[in-house]
Amino acid sequence: MDDEKNEDWRNQVPESERLGDSSRISDSHWEDLVNQIAEPSAMMGDMPVDEIRDRLEEEEGWEPGPAEPIGWRTASPTLMLSVIATFGAVLLLLIGVIFFRPLPDWYLLVGIAVGLGGAVGLFFHLPTSPSSDGDNGASV
């Protein structure tokens, strides 16, 4: 790119936003910077970039195995019951406070009992030993 070709838009920039000649870099210097950013270089890498690209191209045919099912369907029924009881008790008490004034004693006792029962169930579902993969938990 020539600087002369780009001068037409540079004249339309307000004076308060213009760069001085000392702050401006040439287009060739800018293109060199962009090319350096576009070509990643591995710092202290064991393999050159071209060799990494070649290996990645060779391994493109790799297909992962079937994923294991995740989510609430694989969880134990007592865990799900504890989660539902804990959140259900909070919702039950919140609805009671909003719609039933004064709150009946039995309603309050049932809500607290269900919430505490769910919390105790969740407490007993906490892991009792470190994970079997051997990590120290420092990474997510």
Automatic annotation (TrEMBL):
Keyword Nucleus: no
Keywords, comma-separated and alphabetical: Membrane, Transmembrane, Transmembrane helix
Regions of compositional bias (Basic and acidic residues) in chain numbering: 7-27
Residue stretches spanning the membrane: 79-100, 106-126
Domain of life: Bacteria
Chain spans, region Disordered: 1-27
InterPro entries: EmrE-like
Protein name: DUF2335 domain-containing protein
Annotated source species: Brevibacterium picturae
